[in-house]
Specification:
CATH class of the largest domain: Mainly Alpha
Distance between the termini: 49 Å
CATH topology of the largest domain: Butyryl-CoA Dehydrogenase, subunit A, domain 3
Oligomer: single chain
Strand order of the largest sheet: 1-4-5-8
Radius of gyration: 22 Å
Low-confidence stretches: none
Bound molecules: flavin-adenine dinucleotide
Number of domains: 3
Structural class: alpha+beta
CATH architecture of the largest domain: Up-down Bundle
Length: about 400
């Protein structure tokens, strides 16, 4: 790149930064400058959603509105092709966008992440032309909220054990089975479902990935009650559901590799800026000050532990996001999700130490009993998107090239 090109690019990125910043300033507020400290802001502190069905509808609506506004401002899917609803800009623009976005308060990503960050890149590389045109712009405009239908009662970590069946009738696929732990399924318009299309071959080779319209006949969505009290996960029952041929993702019986790509994207999305770790730390500090514990060596050690883990998460996030190939991250992304759960555990432990019995007995005091939601929700984060043990296996085998663990399963 010569000096003129470089100056031109700098100028363009500067103008783009201004545009992104103006957009966010118009629709929301900056994180910095917001009042923090003991007693400021919402008393809610959790990692899993705790909402009523009406609140879930409102949150889904807020997510749709946000996506629509972002799309209209030309800021949806910065590097995505224009013909499919992307902004058609460069990775440099994307980096600027993410940097500016991080500085603002945004609606939580529960309802947007599966569609825009997990499905979209996979649909772009594996979807039929009709599916790309029909769904990619709609996902980024907030018209299609997406849920992931992978896990089943007997297929979680061992995802190749999926038994939901899809049979081809010459034109369409007929799908029957039960999925569990499907986050956000009650508000989703589109599902992405892993199903068995051949039971005669070794397990991994008999799976196919599809898109499924969640509003059609034959689909029943039932809430699952969490130990935190909320119901943000669902069972999805499918009874002879019709999936048109063009809803296939990838070729027949390549569902396993499509699923692996989606799981890598999920881990990247979960680890990267998904939760406001800095806010949790600020709240812990305020709590320590409020209770006169800030000089306790035990408390300080816990707080430093949180600080170190959250900083590691931030730095690893910055490093790993540059390593993806064609938008699909590598197995090292498992580190991000592991670091996230380690940070959450450290926060949980520090909060439990600080608020003590107030964690289980609600005295009505701000910032005390509220932590119970966080502490009860953290174990779930160690499971969703791949359990800690599975991620450690993945890092050992695929990143460190250690010998594979022995398995009795047919593969
Ligand atoms: C917050 C959250 C959100 C979720 N969202 C979705 C969703 O949207 N869509 C969806 O399809 N699913 C979702 N899930 C389900 C999730 O993917 C599964 O719970 C997860 O894959 C684990 O499967 P399982 O629950 O069947 O546990 P199991 O696989 O039965 O695991 C039980 C225990 O055994 C350990 N274990 C299993 N195999 C091994 C091994 N080979 N080596 C060492 N240890 C092992 C595990 O680490 C775990 O501790 C979600 C789960 C949670 C908690």
């Amino acid at each position: 790149m010569n000096t003129t090109d470089y100056k031109g690019l700098r100028h363009e990125l500067g103008a783009f930064r201004h545009h992104v910043s103006s957009f966010f300033s118009r629709i929301t507020v900056k994180k910095e400058g917001r009042a923090t400290g003991w007693g400021f802001g919402s008393d809610t502190v959790n990692v899993l959603s705790e909402f009523t069905e009406t609140q879930e509808e409102e949150r889904a609506m807020a997510a749709r509105t946000y996506l629509r506004e972002r799309f209209d401002a030309g800021l949806a899917w910065i590097t995505g092709p224009r013909e499919y609803g992307g902004a058609g800009l460069t990775p440099d623009h994307d980096a600027v966008y993410r940097e500016v976005e991080r500085a603002f308060e945004l609606p939580d990503k529960d309802y947007t992440v599966v569609g825009t960050e997990i499905l979209a890149p996979v649909l772009l590389s594996h979807g039929t032309e009709k599916a790309k045109i029909s769904y990619l712009p709609a996902i980024h405009r907030g018209e299609q909220l997406v849920c992931q239908l992978f896990s089943e009662p007997d297929a979680g970590s061992d995802l190749a054990a999926v038994v939901t069946s899809a049979l081809f009738d010459g034109t369409d696929w007929r799908v029957t089975g039960t999925k569990v732990w499907s986050s956000g399924a009650s508000q989703a318009d589109l599902g992405v479902i892993l199903a068995r299309t051949d039971s005669e071959v070794p397990r991994h080779r008999g799976l196919t990935m599809f898109l499924v319209d969640m509003h059609q006949e034959g689909i029943e969505v039932r809430p699952i009650r969490q130990m935190t009290g909320g119901s943000s996960f669902y069972e999805v029952w499918l009874d002879d559901v019709c999936i048109p041929g063009w809803h296939i993702l990838g070729a027949r019986e390549t569902g396993w590799s499509v699923a692996l790509e989606m799981l890598l994207l999920e881990r990247a999305a979960l680890g990267a800026d998904r939760l406001p770790i800095g806010d949790y730390l600020a709240r812990l500090l305020a709590t320590a000050q409020q209770f006169g514990r800030i000089d306790s060596p035990q408390v300080r050690a816990r707080l430093i532990d949180v600080l170190i883990k959250s900083r590691l998460l931030e730095l690893t996030n910055g490093r790993l996001t540059t390593l993806s190939v064609d938008g699909i991250p590598g197995p090292e992304m498992a580190m991000l999700k592991l670091l996230l759960t380690q940070s959450l555990l450290a926060i949980s432990e520090a909060a439990s130490l600080l608020v003590g019995p107030r964690l289980v007995a609600d005295s009505g005091a701000w910032g005390t009993y509220a932590w119970s939601q966080f502490v009860l929700g953290t174990p779930g984060m160690r499971i969703g998107g791949g359990t800690d043990e599975i991620l450690k296996n993945l890092l050992a085998e695929r990143v460190l090239n250690l010998p594979r663990e022995p398995t009795s399963s047919v593969s």
